[in-house]
Amino acid sequence: MTDTPLDFGDPADLDRLRRRFRAWLADHPLPERLPDEPVPVFLHRWHRLLHSGGWVGLDVPVQYGGQGLSALHQVAISDELGACRAPGVPRIGYLAHALLEFGSEEQRRRWLPRMLAGDDVWCQGFSEPGAGSDLAGMSTVATPHEDHYTVRGQKLWTSYAQYSGLCLLLARTDRSAPAHRSISAFALPLDRPGVTVRPLRAANGDDEFCELFLDDVRIARSERIGAEGDGWPLAMTTVSYERNALDTGHLSKYGLLVERLRRTARERRADLPDGLLSEIGRCFVDYEVLAAHARRRTAERLGGQLAGPESSIDKLLMTRTEQRLYETALKVFPEEQLRGEEAEDEERAGAGELFGDYLYSRAASVYGGTSQIQRNIIAKRVLGLPSGN
Amino acid sequence: MEAEEFLLVRDMFRAFAVRFRIGSADEVKPTARTTAQEALGELGLAGLRRSSPPAATVQECALLAEEHGRQPLTTSLVGTVLLAPELLRLLERAEPSAHGGTPTIALAHDLRFPGSAPDSSPSRLLAWDCEGADSALCVTPDGTVTALELGATAPGIDLLRDIRSTSSESPARVLGRLDAQEYRHWQAYALVMMSSELVGAAGSFVRLSVEYARERRQYGRAIGSFQAVQHLLADATVLVEACTSATRYAAWCLDNESPARALTAARVAKAEVNASALDAVYTGMQVFGGIAQTWEHIAHLYLRKVRLGAMTLATTADLLTTLAQPELTR
């Protein structure tokens, strides 16, 4: 890691970009969510509207439908949206990075512009019932034939597969090679014969996660991303970009809640026990530290460093921030836990917005690699500690 | 500084630090202390920010403070080379002091910023980080800067850092006054340099414990191959990285943002460091096991420095209650 001075500042043109975006927002009011419209469908409409203004994929090169700017530019847009309580920008950065780093020129031109525009909605088919933390132990197999593969197996935790058209799929193409070199990546259209998608209801009531059943699904060789056996490094790249608070756009969401807590601390100073006041202070410290850390990472990345195993440090810091924040928020706003009974929306009974987010925060130490897996990665790949035996 | 110039200064400083680092508590001796401080003086770092505009940025100074923290050193870098000269720069005093001596800074009797404790009467002030110093500068919350004579040694738990009482016999001399913006800059600067030194200490100690975990064998294998030990070290690494990001960002803010913003960032950094640098040192000690509980081992030198450092200038309790509420817009 760098031990020379870094520029933590915003790029010079960032202010102008923010002003342009605010002006655009003033002319393009948020679409209303229709009664009975599923959240992902509503968010997809929002995605397309944002894209029509040129606000999606700011950090993707121009030739693939982006703007060729930096991650900081995309984050500034997230911030602005957060500040006016609008839904964030679609979280496709990590998928875009996988295609950028591993896709062929033809594939990048074919898929990236459509991904950014929302013409194709992608999901991620990595985990399996028997391969969670031990991702390399997956058993879905893609058997090679002359010009295609047939895929057989099952995927789990495939977020929003029921609303997606394409899946970034990992499957084993060579059963004789060691696990980390036998996996390949594919772009699988989910309307292929043999694909079954079954949603799974999460603890917070959302239908985010899905199971994906693959029964002898035919995938063309041209739909393989990268070389045969490149699936593992591709997956590692993808998850590296999933572990940074800047890339995921979580930072502005935390910032809003922290400010709400601090305003409450000022207004209700006399009623709050000192312990809770300190906890709010600690949440602010966590948030500011995470923001400074994300800026440092961005500065390092602008200096040419690619996302690597240090992103596990970022993920653990993000988890720490998120879990303590929602824990504290429920203490400061205890009434939010009682709202369930009045909820008109049957679907979300028992889950007020804050409580729903709190439940989701408990998943932070599980998704994208558990906190224990992150520690393994830091120990082995950042600190270079030896493996057992 | 130009990037290469900074690297030269840093490498020169590293060479100094390696040469004068203490191998164990028994090596802390008055003559060795004096020699080391004189060698530090010869590096000429006190003048780094004396020119206008300053030759070194705050971030560069903070990186040097980090380097100083990495090794067990008895020298006063933060007090006499960084903090007191910055104070004199803010007062626009070309000379270090009226009589050309070397001042350090004065803190309240509990080592917090003067005036932040209810009973910090001038007679109870302490001169902090005194090696090589002959006076101490005290800044009160109204911005008044006074110079105090040094009194007797007031030993603290930190065996490396020299702390003295201030003399109650000679009256304090008023040197000048900082305005509100300068006072915020001063507090932020002090918090950042202090935090940087502690980050350096924690980071370096964790690195030593990682090396030890690679070498030390039990049950026929390196203890660093056990997942229980690996996870401890991974957590300590996360804490050190959090401290590093927060501290360097706060230093950058002093160079580029308003003093109010820089002060918030500096308070955040100190709050993170107070808790996390200490936890990281605890973890390192746990990995070293029994050997780190001995007088000869350097572990307790790091622990003492970070333990006392965590209550110096601002405690966690002070900082968290301040940071819990939004800044009043001024």
From TrEMBL, chain A:
The keyword Flavoprotein applies. One of its GO terms (molecular function) is oxidoreductase activity, acting on the CH-CH group of donors. GO terms for cellular component: plasma membrane. Its cofactor is FAD. Keywords: FAD, Flavoprotein, Oxidoreductase. Residues 15-119 form the Acyl-CoA dehydrogenase/oxidase N-terminal domain. Residues 229-383 form the Acyl-CoA dehydrogenase/oxidase C-terminal domain. Pfam families: Acyl-CoA_dh_1, Acyl-CoA_dh_M, Acyl-CoA_dh_N. The keyword Iron does not apply. Belongs to the acyl-CoA dehydrogenase family. This is Acyl-CoA dehydrogenase. It comes from Streptomyces olivochromogenes.
From TrEMBL, chain B:
This is Acyl-CoA dehydrogenase. One of its GO terms (molecular function) is acyl-CoA dehydrogenase activity. The keyword Nuclease does not apply. PANTHER family: ACYL-COA DEHYDROGENASE, ACYL-COA DEHYDROGENASE FADE28. It comes from the Bacteria. Residues 193-309 form the Acyl-CoA dehydrogenase/oxidase C-terminal domain. Keywords: FAD, Flavoprotein, Oxidoreductase. Pfam families: Acyl-CoA_dh_1. Gene3D superfamilies: Butyryl-CoA Dehydrogenase, subunit A, domain 3.
